[in-house]
Every structure is written in structure tokens, then in C-alpha cells.
Amino acid sequence: MALTRRQKEVMDFLSNFIANKGYSPSYEEIASGLGLASLATVHKHIQALEAKQYLRRSYNHSRSLEVAERFVTEEQSRRPESSPPSIPLLGRIAAGSPVEAIADPEALHFSDFAKHEDTFALEVRGESMIEDHICSGDYVLAERTDSVKNGDIVVALINGSEATLKRYYQEPDGRVRLQPANAAMDPIFVDPASLNIQGRVLAVMRKY
Question: Is 166 labeled as catalytic in the residue annotation?
Fold first, then answer.
């Protein structure tokens, strides 16, 4: 038989009291803690809980109430299983020529990095950042921000559809230079009006 709401309150009180103090409460303490009108009401609840095998009593000892295994097992089953922190994998990003970034309904688990809800992951495609030790197939962790400074590695969206990973620099003529970390590749010069900074790279993860 399942516990009634009031019986569950009694069991929770008993369990917490014993866990905190190391011994069971008296009937007076139960009545006071739960706002029960009389010791007879407490005794009635104790009898019902013992009959349902949620509670045990030792009749020749004071403070003799013990939480039974049945209650412990049921409480453990109610707790949701914990899962490691995850970061949404939003798609693939070019580290060569800009390509369309497409959302991907996957998640990567980075328990050491997933400290903020604005952190996301992207898988790198291409070789334009290899001199910064960011290779094709690596994962970059980035924080969502549009506030970056010269030299930051950024997730840049060009013309609303083409995403690329580059170092960010503001040029004297007002343009933005997206600089690859590959001597064999040319930088990309962009009008700020057609550029949207999606985030700043925090870390690189490589799976071997």
C-alpha cells in the first residue's frame, strides 16, 4: 500500500531527523515538528507505517524508531538519474572557405567546460587554423558573445549564412579582417554590416 500524503510527511521528518542527529525523534518531537494535535495521532501514524513496513520499532528502547529498507528503496527510485553536463552540438564550421553552418541535433558532454548555458560546441572542418593547432575534426568550445577584441578566435557569420572560424581584427579602413592561421591561405575582408560575431572560442577538444 502506498503512503498517504501525511504518512509521507511523517517519514520524511523521521528520515531527516535521524540523518541529522543520529538518533530517532521522540513522539513529542514528531508532534511538534509536524504540527500534530496529540501524541495519539502520532501513535496512529507510527502504527500504520509499521504495518506498511516503512518503519520498524524496538519496543524495549526509547527513541526506537528506524526507517525501514522499503522507504529507502522507494526514495532512491524517485530520484532522477544524474547525467553529465552536455553542450549542444550546433553544426560544422569551416576552417577553410566559408560554408553554410547547419544546426545538428546532437550533444557533446564536457563536464569540465559546461559551466555556463551560453557555451556551445562546433566541429571544425578545414585546415585554415592549423597553425593555432586547430585541426579538421577538432571540436571548439565557444561562448555566445558579440563583444570581441583584436586577436580573438571567433565564430563569424558572413552575410547571414556563411560561418567560419578565424582570428578577428579591425582594419584602419573600417573593414574587419578574418585572419586564418595558415600561411598558405589569404585573409577574408568583410564589411561590418555583413558580419555577425556568433561567439568567441574558449577551448579546443580533440578526440583521438
Answer: yes
